[in-house]
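Final report, Chapter 2: Outcomes

The project's central promise was a pipeline that accepts a single protein chain and returns its three-dimensional structure in a standardized token representation, suitable for archiving and comparison. That pipeline is now operational. To close this chapter, we reproduce one record exactly as it appears in the project archive, with the input sequence first and the structure output second.
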Amino acid sequence: MAADTDTVWSCFVPRELPRFAKREISPAPASKKALFKRLSCLPAFLPRKLMHMRLDKATGVKCFMLSAEILQITKHQGYVWDWTPLGFDRNACHIGKRFQHVATFRNCGKIHCKMLSQKVMYAAYMVFKLGPTSFYGIDYPFQEASISVGGRGSTSIVCLQSCMEDEGDGGESPRIHVLESPDRAHRVVRCPRVITLGEDIVLPRKRADDWMEVELGEFYNEEGYDEDVSVSLTETTVTKKYGLIVMGVEFRNKLQKPTGL
């Protein structure tokens, strides 16, 4: 059938793909259609396996996830980061790929624009969890997220210890929850119980894989600038905190549904 030819599927598979880790795509797909199905259904690790790439099923846009292990994490005095092995659970998320470790708090990451698809509005998302037994100091003061390409950039304020749920079937307004630590000794929440949408505070959303994600910013990749796009999440005030678990930072086209849904 004409719809199965390489000529047709070449429109969906980017001309320039990154070099993948050894045996990551094996056996080699026999056609462009098979290659697209492989990369849109399951991400492929790049060398060193600290970054993986997948294709958006609807558009063929290249989407990347950076492991927490390659983020530049600044350690303030008294802060300790643990590198925790991350169990593999193929049923937890449709992407079916997990980095070996997560970071168990300033972190930033970057990716070169030429690795991304051109003429696409991208957004960067930090994928994270709060400690399953205890977390503290993540609620307030809020954190500052930033994104920049060259000398151009933007910043926003995010509240990690909260979660926004999408509208229900009845058209209700999004609901906001402030999350409480499972540990009773650290269950005091210092941020306002009710955060109004008019305060321009970016809130995380839950994903189907039981992780959360928060948008760090967006940018339009016009012609694939010859420069890095950098994202960061920083404290506005240095305070004691623990229980923030970071998987990494994902770059994907803005209108795409969250990974894991």
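Archive annotation: The mean pLDDT is 77.
This record, like all others produced under the grant, will remain available to the consortium after the project formally closes.
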